Amino acid sequence: MNSITASMTKGLWCTLAAGLLLVGCATEPEMPEGTIRPLDPGTAEADSDIVLPGNKPVRWVSRRVSLPLGTSTEDAWLLANEGVLDDLARAVWNANGLRVGVLPAPRGPEFAKTLADTIDQRDTQILSYSFLEDVRESPPLRAEFFADLTVPPRPVTLEYFTKGRLRMLMSSQPLGNGSTRVTLTPQHYLRKTTLLPQTPQERELDGRVFDELSVEIDVASNQILLLGFYQPPPPVVEGEGESEPSDDAPEPTGESNEPTATPESLPRPADDLGESTISIDQPEAQPPVEAETQTETTEEEVDEIPPLNLGRGLFTTGIKDDDLQMLFLFRPLR
Protein backbone atom coordinates (compact mmCIF):
# COMPACT_ATOMS: atom_id res chain seq x y z
CA MET A 1 0.00 0.00 0.00
CA ASN A 2 2.77 2.38 0.92
CA SER A 3 4.57 1.55 -2.33
CA ILE A 4 1.42 2.39 -4.35
CA THR A 5 1.03 5.72 -2.52
CA ALA A 6 4.69 6.52 -3.07
CA SER A 7 4.37 5.70 -6.77
CA MET A 8 1.33 7.97 -7.10
CA THR A 9 3.10 10.81 -5.28
CA LYS A 10 6.16 10.41 -7.48
CA GLY A 11 3.95 10.48 -10.58
CA LEU A 12 2.24 13.71 -9.47
CA TRP A 13 5.60 15.41 -8.89
CA CYS A 14 6.82 14.32 -12.32
CA THR A 15 3.67 15.68 -13.95
CA LEU A 16 4.02 19.00 -12.08
CA ALA A 17 7.70 19.30 -13.04
CA ALA A 18 6.91 18.62 -16.69
CA GLY A 19 4.23 21.33 -16.61
CA LEU A 20 6.66 23.85 -15.15
CA LEU A 21 9.20 23.00 -17.86
CA LEU A 22 6.59 23.53 -20.55
CA VAL A 23 5.63 26.91 -19.09
CA GLY A 24 9.26 27.98 -18.93
CA CYS A 25 9.86 27.01 -22.56
CA ALA A 26 6.79 28.75 -23.94
CA THR A 27 7.54 31.50 -26.43
CA GLU A 28 6.67 35.08 -25.60
CA PRO A 29 3.40 36.27 -27.16
CA GLU A 30 4.03 38.43 -30.20
CA MET A 31 3.08 42.08 -30.20
CA PRO A 32 -0.11 42.98 -32.08
CA GLU A 33 0.29 42.84 -35.85
CA GLY A 34 1.01 46.23 -37.39
CA THR A 35 2.88 47.66 -34.44
CA ILE A 36 6.47 48.70 -34.92
CA ARG A 37 8.45 48.61 -31.73
CA PRO A 38 8.09 49.47 -28.03
CA LEU A 39 9.36 52.80 -26.86
CA ASP A 40 12.81 52.76 -25.34
CA PRO A 41 12.33 52.23 -21.57
CA GLY A 42 15.40 54.37 -20.96
CA THR A 43 13.60 57.45 -22.26
CA ALA A 44 10.85 57.39 -19.64
CA GLU A 45 10.24 60.86 -18.26
CA ALA A 46 10.04 61.94 -14.66
CA ASP A 47 6.25 62.34 -14.84
CA SER A 48 5.76 58.79 -16.11
CA ASP A 49 3.86 57.96 -12.93
CA ILE A 50 0.79 59.68 -14.41
CA VAL A 51 0.78 57.25 -17.34
CA LEU A 52 -1.92 54.64 -16.96
CA PRO A 53 -0.57 51.11 -16.50
CA GLY A 54 -0.74 48.54 -19.25
CA ASN A 55 -0.81 48.90 -23.00
CA LYS A 56 -4.26 50.39 -23.35
CA PRO A 57 -4.86 51.43 -26.98
CA VAL A 58 -6.20 54.82 -27.97
CA ARG A 59 -8.91 54.91 -30.60
CA TRP A 60 -8.65 57.76 -33.09
CA VAL A 61 -10.83 59.00 -35.90
CA SER A 62 -8.45 59.90 -38.71
CA ARG A 63 -9.66 62.27 -41.43
CA ARG A 64 -7.64 62.79 -44.61
CA VAL A 65 -8.44 66.02 -46.46
CA SER A 66 -7.12 66.36 -50.05
CA LEU A 67 -6.52 69.77 -51.62
CA PRO A 68 -4.72 71.12 -54.70
CA LEU A 69 -1.00 71.42 -54.01
CA GLY A 70 -1.02 75.12 -54.86
CA THR A 71 -3.80 75.95 -52.38
CA SER A 72 -2.67 77.93 -49.35
CA THR A 73 -3.71 76.45 -46.00
CA GLU A 74 -2.41 79.34 -43.89
CA ASP A 75 -5.90 80.49 -42.85
CA ALA A 76 -6.62 76.99 -41.56
CA TRP A 77 -3.36 76.72 -39.64
CA LEU A 78 -3.96 80.11 -38.01
CA LEU A 79 -6.80 78.45 -36.06
CA ALA A 80 -4.45 75.77 -34.71
CA ASN A 81 -1.76 75.97 -32.05
CA GLU A 82 1.63 75.18 -33.57
CA GLY A 83 3.30 76.18 -30.30
CA VAL A 84 3.02 72.57 -29.13
CA LEU A 85 6.61 72.37 -30.42
CA ASP A 86 9.29 74.70 -29.18
CA ASP A 87 10.79 77.14 -31.68
CA LEU A 88 13.80 74.96 -32.50
CA ALA A 89 11.82 71.75 -33.05
CA ARG A 90 9.26 73.61 -35.10
CA ALA A 91 11.97 75.14 -37.31
CA VAL A 92 13.57 71.73 -37.88
CA TRP A 93 10.23 70.17 -38.79
CA ASN A 94 9.38 73.04 -41.14
CA ALA A 95 12.77 72.66 -42.83
CA ASN A 96 11.68 69.10 -43.67
CA GLY A 97 8.31 70.21 -45.03
CA LEU A 98 6.48 68.92 -41.93
CA ARG A 99 3.83 70.75 -39.94
CA VAL A 100 2.02 69.78 -36.75
CA GLY A 101 -0.37 71.47 -34.34
CA VAL A 102 -3.49 70.98 -32.23
CA LEU A 103 -6.92 72.43 -32.94
CA PRO A 104 -9.67 72.94 -30.34
CA ALA A 105 -12.48 70.59 -31.34
CA PRO A 106 -15.17 73.35 -31.14
CA ARG A 107 -13.32 75.21 -33.91
CA GLY A 108 -13.59 72.24 -36.27
CA PRO A 109 -16.45 73.72 -38.38
CA GLU A 110 -14.59 77.03 -38.68
CA PHE A 111 -11.48 75.12 -39.72
CA ALA A 112 -13.42 73.26 -42.41
CA LYS A 113 -14.77 76.52 -43.89
CA THR A 114 -11.22 77.72 -44.59
CA LEU A 115 -10.65 74.67 -46.81
CA ALA A 116 -13.10 75.61 -49.54
CA ASP A 117 -10.98 73.92 -52.23
CA THR A 118 -11.32 70.48 -50.65
CA ILE A 119 -11.44 67.81 -53.34
CA ASP A 120 -11.92 64.73 -51.17
CA GLN A 121 -12.03 63.68 -47.53
CA ARG A 122 -12.09 60.25 -45.94
CA ASP A 123 -12.60 59.12 -42.36
CA THR A 124 -11.16 55.97 -40.83
CA GLN A 125 -10.76 54.65 -37.29
CA ILE A 126 -7.40 53.47 -36.04
CA LEU A 127 -6.11 51.93 -32.84
CA SER A 128 -2.80 53.35 -31.66
CA TYR A 129 -0.69 51.65 -29.00
CA SER A 130 2.41 52.67 -27.07
CA PHE A 131 4.42 51.11 -29.91
CA LEU A 132 5.39 53.12 -32.96
CA GLU A 133 3.26 52.25 -35.99
CA ASP A 134 2.74 53.96 -39.31
CA VAL A 135 -0.31 56.18 -39.70
CA ARG A 136 0.72 57.45 -43.13
CA GLU A 137 2.68 55.66 -45.86
CA SER A 138 3.64 57.28 -49.14
CA PRO A 139 3.48 55.67 -52.59
CA PRO A 140 6.80 54.25 -53.85
CA LEU A 141 9.33 57.06 -54.14
CA ARG A 142 10.03 58.12 -57.74
CA ALA A 143 12.56 60.88 -57.08
CA GLU A 144 15.43 61.73 -54.76
CA PHE A 145 14.46 62.89 -51.29
CA PHE A 146 16.38 64.28 -48.35
CA ALA A 147 16.06 64.63 -44.59
CA ASP A 148 17.40 67.81 -43.02
CA LEU A 149 18.87 66.78 -39.67
CA THR A 150 20.51 70.15 -38.99
CA VAL A 151 20.14 71.39 -35.43
CA PRO A 152 21.64 74.89 -35.09
CA PRO A 153 24.34 75.83 -34.29
CA ARG A 154 25.70 72.49 -35.56
CA PRO A 155 26.84 72.15 -39.18
CA VAL A 156 24.30 71.43 -41.91
CA THR A 157 23.47 67.71 -42.03
CA LEU A 158 21.46 66.34 -44.94
CA GLU A 159 20.71 62.69 -45.75
CA TYR A 160 19.69 61.81 -49.31
CA PHE A 161 17.86 58.66 -50.34
CA THR A 162 15.81 57.10 -53.12
CA LYS A 163 13.45 54.14 -53.54
CA GLY A 164 11.36 52.64 -50.77
CA ARG A 165 8.57 54.60 -49.10
CA LEU A 166 8.19 57.34 -46.52
CA ARG A 167 6.20 56.74 -43.35
CA MET A 168 5.02 58.79 -40.41
CA LEU A 169 5.15 56.63 -37.28
CA MET A 170 2.95 57.39 -34.29
CA SER A 171 2.54 55.98 -30.80
CA SER A 172 -0.15 56.89 -28.27
CA GLN A 173 0.13 56.68 -24.50
CA PRO A 174 -2.96 57.47 -22.36
CA LEU A 175 -2.29 59.88 -19.51
CA GLY A 176 -4.04 60.00 -16.17
CA ASN A 177 -5.48 63.47 -16.84
CA GLY A 178 -7.49 62.32 -19.87
CA SER A 179 -4.93 63.50 -22.40
CA THR A 180 -2.90 61.36 -24.80
CA ARG A 181 0.85 61.62 -25.27
CA VAL A 182 1.64 61.23 -28.96
CA THR A 183 5.09 60.50 -30.37
CA LEU A 184 5.66 61.27 -34.07
CA THR A 185 8.71 59.99 -35.95
CA PRO A 186 9.38 60.05 -39.73
CA GLN A 187 10.80 56.92 -41.36
CA HIS A 188 12.30 56.00 -44.73
CA TYR A 189 11.14 52.41 -45.14
CA LEU A 190 13.31 50.28 -47.40
CA ARG A 191 12.94 46.51 -47.24
CA LYS A 192 16.25 44.75 -46.82
CA THR A 193 17.25 41.18 -47.61
CA THR A 194 18.71 39.24 -44.72
CA LEU A 195 19.23 35.60 -43.76
CA LEU A 196 18.75 36.40 -40.09
CA PRO A 197 15.35 35.74 -38.53
CA GLN A 198 13.24 38.87 -37.99
CA THR A 199 10.07 39.52 -36.05
CA PRO A 200 7.26 41.40 -37.83
CA GLN A 201 8.18 44.48 -35.81
CA GLU A 202 11.85 44.28 -36.83
CA ARG A 203 10.83 43.99 -40.48
CA GLU A 204 8.74 47.15 -40.15
CA LEU A 205 11.85 49.00 -38.97
CA ASP A 206 13.86 48.23 -42.10
CA GLY A 207 15.37 51.35 -43.59
CA ARG A 208 15.99 54.49 -41.57
CA VAL A 209 13.96 55.71 -38.58
CA PHE A 210 14.72 59.41 -38.08
CA ASP A 211 14.85 59.47 -34.30
CA GLU A 212 16.54 62.88 -34.56
CA LEU A 213 13.21 64.30 -35.79
CA SER A 214 11.02 62.56 -33.20
CA VAL A 215 8.66 64.86 -31.26
CA GLU A 216 6.19 64.41 -28.39
CA ILE A 217 2.85 66.21 -28.12
CA ASP A 218 0.13 65.97 -25.47
CA VAL A 219 -3.35 66.02 -27.03
CA ALA A 220 -6.32 66.77 -24.75
CA SER A 221 -9.61 64.93 -25.17
CA ASN A 222 -11.21 68.08 -26.65
CA GLN A 223 -8.42 68.72 -29.17
CA ILE A 224 -7.64 67.53 -32.70
CA LEU A 225 -4.11 66.68 -33.81
CA LEU A 226 -3.19 68.16 -37.22
CA LEU A 227 -0.47 66.88 -39.56
CA GLY A 228 0.33 68.34 -42.95
CA PHE A 229 2.72 69.69 -45.56
CA TYR A 230 4.64 72.87 -44.75
CA GLN A 231 5.18 75.21 -47.68
CA PRO A 232 7.25 78.33 -47.02
CA PRO A 233 5.52 81.59 -47.93
CA PRO A 234 6.25 82.79 -51.47
CA PRO A 235 9.11 85.27 -51.77
CA VAL A 236 8.22 88.93 -52.00
CA VAL A 237 8.73 90.21 -55.54
CA GLU A 238 11.02 93.24 -55.60
CA GLY A 239 9.16 96.36 -56.64
CA GLU A 240 5.76 94.87 -55.82
CA GLY A 241 3.42 97.48 -54.44
CA GLU A 242 5.29 100.46 -55.91
CA SER A 243 3.07 103.41 -56.75
CA GLU A 244 1.91 103.94 -60.32
CA PRO A 245 3.10 107.04 -62.23
CA SER A 246 1.18 110.13 -61.16
CA ASP A 247 -1.38 111.65 -63.50
CA ASP A 248 0.22 115.04 -62.77
CA ALA A 249 3.54 114.03 -64.31
CA PRO A 250 4.49 116.19 -67.30
CA GLU A 251 3.81 114.65 -70.69
CA PRO A 252 6.78 114.06 -72.98
CA THR A 253 7.26 116.93 -75.47
CA GLY A 254 8.97 114.81 -78.08
CA GLU A 255 12.13 116.92 -77.81
CA SER A 256 15.31 115.40 -76.40
CA ASN A 257 18.86 116.54 -75.89
CA GLU A 258 20.12 112.99 -76.51
CA PRO A 259 21.71 112.29 -79.91
CA THR A 260 19.48 110.59 -82.42
CA ALA A 261 20.08 106.85 -82.52
CA THR A 262 21.15 105.32 -85.79
CA PRO A 263 20.45 101.70 -86.86
CA GLU A 264 24.12 100.90 -86.38
CA SER A 265 24.10 102.17 -82.78
CA LEU A 266 20.99 100.22 -81.70
CA PRO A 267 21.78 97.08 -79.65
CA ARG A 268 20.89 93.74 -81.11
CA PRO A 269 18.01 91.89 -79.33
CA ALA A 270 20.41 89.24 -78.05
CA ASP A 271 22.97 91.64 -76.56
CA ASP A 272 21.19 91.97 -73.21
CA LEU A 273 19.84 88.40 -72.94
CA GLY A 274 22.76 86.38 -74.26
CA GLU A 275 23.60 84.95 -77.63
CA SER A 276 21.59 81.79 -76.95
CA THR A 277 18.31 83.70 -77.03
CA ILE A 278 16.05 82.36 -79.79
CA SER A 279 14.51 85.06 -81.98
CA ILE A 280 10.98 84.25 -83.06
CA ASP A 281 11.02 86.91 -85.82
CA GLN A 282 14.23 85.69 -87.42
CA PRO A 283 14.52 81.91 -86.99
CA GLU A 284 16.82 81.64 -89.99
CA ALA A 285 19.56 83.51 -88.12
CA GLN A 286 19.88 80.71 -85.57
CA PRO A 287 22.19 77.71 -86.04
CA PRO A 288 20.34 74.53 -87.02
CA VAL A 289 19.48 72.15 -84.20
CA GLU A 290 19.14 68.45 -84.86
CA ALA A 291 15.83 66.96 -83.85
CA GLU A 292 17.42 64.10 -81.88
CA THR A 293 19.59 66.47 -79.84
CA GLN A 294 16.59 68.67 -79.08
CA THR A 295 14.57 65.66 -77.87
CA GLU A 296 17.35 64.36 -75.64
CA THR A 297 17.82 67.76 -74.00
CA THR A 298 14.12 68.03 -73.28
CA GLU A 299 14.01 64.58 -71.67
CA GLU A 300 16.98 65.41 -69.46
CA GLU A 301 15.33 68.62 -68.32
CA VAL A 302 12.16 66.70 -67.41
CA ASP A 303 14.11 64.09 -65.45
CA GLU A 304 16.17 66.63 -63.53
CA ILE A 305 14.04 67.13 -60.41
CA PRO A 306 15.78 68.66 -57.39
CA PRO A 307 15.73 66.57 -54.19
CA LEU A 308 12.44 66.83 -52.34
CA ASN A 309 11.89 67.06 -48.58
CA LEU A 310 10.07 64.62 -46.30
CA GLY A 311 6.83 66.58 -46.29
CA ARG A 312 6.60 66.51 -50.07
CA GLY A 313 6.85 62.73 -49.99
CA LEU A 314 4.55 62.16 -47.02
CA PHE A 315 1.76 64.68 -47.54
CA THR A 316 1.44 65.05 -51.32
CA THR A 317 0.37 62.56 -53.96
CA GLY A 318 3.41 62.89 -56.21
CA ILE A 319 6.16 65.06 -57.63
CA LYS A 320 4.22 67.15 -60.16
CA ASP A 321 2.95 70.69 -59.65
CA ASP A 322 -0.66 69.63 -60.25
CA ASP A 323 -0.59 66.98 -57.51
CA LEU A 324 -2.62 67.09 -54.31
CA GLN A 325 -1.60 67.90 -50.76
CA MET A 326 -3.13 66.20 -47.75
CA LEU A 327 -4.06 67.29 -44.25
CA PHE A 328 -4.55 64.64 -41.56
CA LEU A 329 -6.79 65.26 -38.55
CA PHE A 330 -6.70 62.85 -35.59
CA ARG A 331 -9.46 63.11 -32.98
CA PRO A 332 -9.22 60.86 -29.88
CA LEU A 333 -12.27 58.82 -28.93
CA ARG A 334 -11.19 57.54 -25.50
UniProtKB/TrEMBL annotation:
Biased composition (Acidic residues): 239-250
Region listing for Disordered, in residue ranges: 231-311
Domain of life: Bacteria
Name of the protein in its database record: Uncharacterized protein
Biased amino acid composition, Polar residues: 254-263
Lineage: Bacteria, Pseudomonadati, Planctomycetota, Phycisphaerae, Phycisphaerales
